[in-house]
Give the backbone structure.
Amino acid sequence: MSKELSCVICRQGKLAPGMATVMVAARETVVVVKQVPADICDTCGEYYLSQEMAEQIDDIVDAAAARGAEVEIIRYAA
Ligand SMILES: [Zn+2]
């Protein structure tokens, strides 16, 4: 894996560590997770989650859906 990551969306930006707000819709549930550590494009703002982080987001969304929440806004605590 190259350390020089570039954005696959705009193909110009460089990725740098930062915080993203991730919104996921699953069936009847919409979950917004704030302050998620991610690599963020300095040009278009697209964010890239690590595999581990994506799995944690999945778990958060599953838990919210299981509670029957329609909208949940969660602050991710690293
Ligand atoms: Zn970009």
The radius of gyration is 14 Å. Residues 16 and 24 are 22 Å apart (CA to CA). The chain has one domain: 15-75. Residues 15-75 form a domain with the Ubiquitin-like (UB roll) fold (CATH 3.10.20.860).
